[in-house]
Amino acid sequence: MRIEADSLQxxxxxxxxxxxxxxxxxSIGSIIGCLLxxxxxxxxxxxxxxxxxxxxxxxxxxxxxxxxxxxxxxSKLGEKYSSYFAIYGVASVGIAIALMTYFLGGPESxxxxxxxxxxxxxxxxxxxxxxxxxxxxxxxxxxxxxxSYPYLHGQALxxxxxxxxxxxATMVIVLVGFRFKEKVALQEIQSRLRLMEAQKQLEKHTENxxxxxxxxxxxxxxxxxxxxxxxxxxxxxHEFNNILTVIIAHGELAKLDNTKxxxxxxxxxxxxxxxxxxxxxxxxxxFSRQSSHERHYINLQKCCESALSLMESxxxxxxxxxxxxxxxxLPPVWASETELQQVLVNIxxxxxxxxxxxxxxxxxxxxxxxEVALSISDTGCGIPRENLEKIFEPFFTTKGVWGDSDxxxxxxGLSVVHGIVxxxxxxxxxxxxxxxGTCFTIFIPIPPEGLEKVTYLADSTVPTHFDHxxxxxxxxxxxxxxxxAEGITKLLRARGHEVTSAxxxxxxxxxxxxxxxxxxxxxxxxxxxxxxxxxxxxxxxNPPIPCMVITGAAKxxxxxELLGLGAFACLHKPFTIIDLVNIILRFEKNFQHxxx
Length: 596
What we know:
Blueprint: H1 2-39, H2 41-47, H3 52-74, H4 77-103, H5 112-125, H6 130-148, H7 155-257, H8 260-288, E1 296-298, H9 300-309, H10 312-317, E2 320-325, E3 333-335, H11 337-355, E4 359-368, E5 371-378, H12 385-388, H13 413-423, E6 427-433, E7 437-445, E8 474-478, H14 482-494, E9 498-502, H15 505-514, E10 519-523, H16 531-540, E11 547-551, H17 558-564, E12 569-572, H18 577-592
Parallel strand pairs: 2-4, 8-9, 8-10, 10-11, 11-12
Antiparallel strand pairs: 1-3, 4-5, 5-7, 6-7
Helix pairs in contact: 1-3, 1-4, 1-7, 3-4, 4-5, 4-6, 5-7, 6-7, 7-8, 9-11, 11-13, 15-16
C-alpha cells in the first residue's frame, strides 16, 4: 500500500508539473509559429512564385490559428486544455506544410523537409506524453498521405516511400525522446520526494535530539540545584534550631511568669519566629523545586534577600559580613523566580567557599542603559587569570574530586548560571584578583513596555479586631489538624459566620449530605479520602458549592490544577491571618453580589 501510494503521488506530481510546463511551452511555441510561418513566405517568393498567393493564404490561416491558440492558452482554458492546444498547434503546422507540398509536386517537393522540421521542433518544445505524440504525428502523417496520393506513380512513388521512411523514423526518434524525458522527469521528482522525506526524518530526529538535550539539561540543572540544597541543609537546620529555641525559651518563661505582659511578648515572638521559619521554608522550596520556566515580573532586591536568607546562618558562623546596596526604585526584571534564585545561590555559595573564615560579601544592583546590573563581590581567594575563561565551561571545577579539593563541587554551577542568564537575554561578566576577591556582574534587560505590570505591596499588618460581615454565611471547615480547624473556625465566627467543623473527609461528606453550605474550606492531604473528593462532591451540587482548598504541598502547578477542578481559591500553608481574611473578604463581596 505504501509503494502504491508513493507511485500515485509521483504520477500526480509529474502530471501537475508537466501541465504547467506544457502551458508555458504552448505560449512560447504559438508565438514563435506566428512569427516564423509568415516569415518563411520569403522562401515561397524565391522557389514557388506561381503559387505565391495560395501558399501565403495557407500560411496566413495557420498563423491565425496559432494566434488564437496563444490567447486561449493564456485564459482559464489553458489550465485544463493546454495538451489539446499543443496537439492542435503542432498538427496545424504539419498540415499547412503538407498542403504546400500538394501544390509543389507532392513527395518530390522540397517543402517535404518542413514536415520533418515541424515534427522535430514540436517534439523538442512540447512536453507531450507518448499518446499525445502518437496522436499528433498520426494527424501529420495522414495529411501527408492525403496530399501525396494523387502523385503516387513513377518516380514520385519512390520519393513517397523514401519520405515516409524518414518521416516515420523522425517520429519514432521523437517519441523515444518523449519517453526518455518522461523517465528523467519522474526520476527527478522521485529524488525530490526522497529528499523531502529525508528532510522530514532529519527534522524529526533533530527535534527528538533537541528534546533529549532539553530534558538532560533540565535534569543536570535540577541535580546541581539539589547539590546546592545539600550544602545549604546544615545552615538551614541551624537556623531552624535557633528559631525553635527562641519560641521554646520565651514560651517557658511566659509560663513561669504567668503574667499578661510575658504571655503577650511570648506570643509576639512566636509569631515573628514562625514567620521567619515560614519564609526560610518557602525560599528553600522555591529554590529546590523543578522549574516551570514561567516568567513574570521579579522584584530583584527581594529575590536577592530570599537567596541570602538560605545562607545567612552559615555566613554568621563564618564571620562573613553582608553588605547590600539597592536603590529605592530599581526596575523589576522579567524572569523565572526559581531560575534567578539558582543563579544567585550558586554564586553566593562559591563566594562563601572562596572566603572561608571571615570576609565581606557585597551584593547590589543599579540601572544602566536599559539593563539592570546585579553585582555580587567577595573578598575571597580570587580566581587565577588562566582559569577565568574556563569557569563557565561544564565540569570545569577546582572543587571536589575533579578539582583536588575537600570543598564539594561538580563543575556545573557556573555553567548552569551562564545558561540561565543567556536564556534571559542577559550576559555575565567576571573580574577577579588572586588573594583580593571576585566580582560577578549580571546584566539583565529591563522588560519592554506592553508586558503585564505588577505592584509590590508592603507587608500587611495583623488586624486587632474584625467587623461583622454584611451577611452571615454557613461555612464548613475540614482539616485533620484540629488546631488549624479551630483557628479558622474562630476567625470566621469573629466575622459573624455560622461555622461547622469536621476533622476528616468522611465526616465532612456526611455533613454535606445533611445541610446546604454557602462555602466549604478543606485541607487537601488528609487520612482516607483527600480534599479533592470533597471538592468533587461540592461541584456535583446544583448549583455547585464554592470550595477553598488549603494545602502544605509544594507541587508545581498545584494551584492551577485545583482551580481547574473548580476550587474557588487555593491557600498554601503556612499562611497568615491576613492571607485568609483577604480571600474571605473577596468571597463575601462576590456572594453579596450574587456571584460566589
